[in-house]
């Protein structure tokens, strides 16, 4: 199923370079309080030693699971415990809150872009993460 | 979350400039051709209706077997093979790399993936 926007209502044509228009928009988004709070929360998460320690442990358990080393379910159980511990940290909670707020703002902006372009912008601009050409 | 007026204006300008891009324009033309063709639009509507009906059955707890889903896959094949629908989908596919490139301009300035954060849930 393709994500599409009804392009029926054509707005007044404006000749602007899309890349330049994207830069203007990007610069404005950088100045918003939502983006500022998100960046601050992201930096806090990236510099928190407890989070880094938990991340390392979580990665190790995930790696073990990927290699099928979990005959007694110890890695699964430990991974679940560590992920819960991680989610309970104040910096992580703050990060999720800031991410949700910046995402709400970006979605509102994207709705305007998509309406004007007549095509769902972010949904169609997102690169495939699977490397399968989709 | 309401963007401020300056941001709304910039978003409108970006959207309008994207609308002028060749493949997006061709996509719109193809879209309108489908709208003007009762057979093509009815075929596509039938596929979406069937898809939603199957999803509703699944959400109601029904386990669907191959015979339940076969009509949908057959219809989807017909839709994908329809020349007008196929043309519109091709135009959208051709537009996507440029849409990604434009989104990358925003992501580069922000240091985060705009398309991921802005994608509707």
Question: How is this structure best described in words?
Answer:
The complex is a heterodimer of chains A (134) and B (121). Chain A is mainly alpha-helical and 134 residues long. Chain A has six helices and no strands. Chain A has helices at residues 18-30, 33-46, 49-66, 74-87, 90-117, 121-125. In chain A, helix 2 (33-46) packs across helix 5 (90-117) and helix 3 packs antiparallel against helix 4 (74-87). Chain A starts with 17 loop residues before the first helix and ends in a 9-residue tail after the last helix. Chain B has 121 residues and is an all-alpha fold. Chain B has one domain (22-118). Chain B has helices spanning 5-19, 22-35, 38-59, 66-81, 83-110, 114-118. In chain B, helix 2 (22-35) packs antiparallel against helix 5 (83-110) and helix 3 (38-59) packs antiparallel against helix 4. The radius of gyration of chain B is 19 Å and the shape is extended. The mean pLDDT of chain B is 95. The chains are: A mainly alpha (134), B mainly alpha (121). The interface between A and B is large, with 60 and 53 residues.
Keywords:
heterodimer, A: 134 residues, 6 helices, 0% strand, disordered C terminus, B: 121 residues, mainly alpha, 83% helix, extended
Order of helices and strands of chain A: HHHHHH
The helix content of chain B, as a percent range, equals over 70%
First-to-last CA distance of chain A: 12 Å
Cα shape of chain A: elongated
| Main sheet attributes: strand count, strand direction, barrel closure of chain A | none
Strand content of chain B: under 5%
Q: Can you give the mean pLDDT of chain A?
A: 87
Overall number of structural domains of chain B: 1
Number of strands of chain A: 0
Strand content of chain A: under 5%
Helix segment tally of chain A: 6
Low-confidence stretches of chain A: 130-134
Count helical runs of chain B: 6
Helix content of chain A: 55-70%
Rg over alpha carbons of chain A: 21 Å
User: Helices and strands of chain B: which structural class?
Assistant: mainly alpha
User: Mean pLDDT across all residues of chain B, rounded?
Assistant: 95
SSE topology string of chain B? HHHHHH
């Amino acid at each position: 199923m393709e994500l599409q926007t009804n392009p029926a209502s054509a707005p007044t044509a404006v000749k602007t370079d899309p890349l330049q228009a994207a830069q203007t928009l990007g610069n404005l988004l950088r100045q918003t309080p939502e983006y500022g709070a998100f960046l601050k929360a992201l930096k806090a998460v990236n510099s928190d030693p407890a989070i880094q320690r938990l991340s390392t442990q979580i990665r190790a358990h995930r790696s073990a699971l990927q290699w099928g080393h979990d005959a007694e379910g110890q890695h699964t159980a430990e991974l679940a415990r560590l992920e819960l511990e991680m989610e309970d940290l104040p910096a992580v909670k703050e990060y999720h809150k800031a991410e949700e707020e910046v995402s709400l703002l970006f979605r509102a902006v994207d709705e305007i872009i998509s309406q004007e372009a007549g095509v769902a912008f972010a949904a169609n601009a997102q690169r495939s993460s699977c490397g399968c050409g989709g | 979350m309401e963007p401020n007026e300056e941001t709304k204006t910039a978003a409108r300008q970006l959207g309008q400039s994207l609308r002028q891009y060749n493949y997006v324009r061709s996509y719109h033309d193809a879209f309108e051709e489908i709208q003007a063709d009762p057979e093509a639009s009815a075929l596509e509507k039938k596929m979406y209706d069937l898809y939603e009906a199957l999803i509703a059955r699944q959400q109601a707890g029904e386990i669907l077997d191959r015979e339940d889903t076969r009509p949908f896959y057959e219809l989807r094949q017909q839709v994908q093979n329809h020349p007008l629908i196929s043309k519109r989908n091709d135009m959208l596919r051709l537009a996507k790399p440029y849409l990604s490139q434009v989104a990358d301009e925003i992501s580069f300035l922000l240091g985060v993936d705009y398309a991921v954060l802005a994608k509707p849930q």
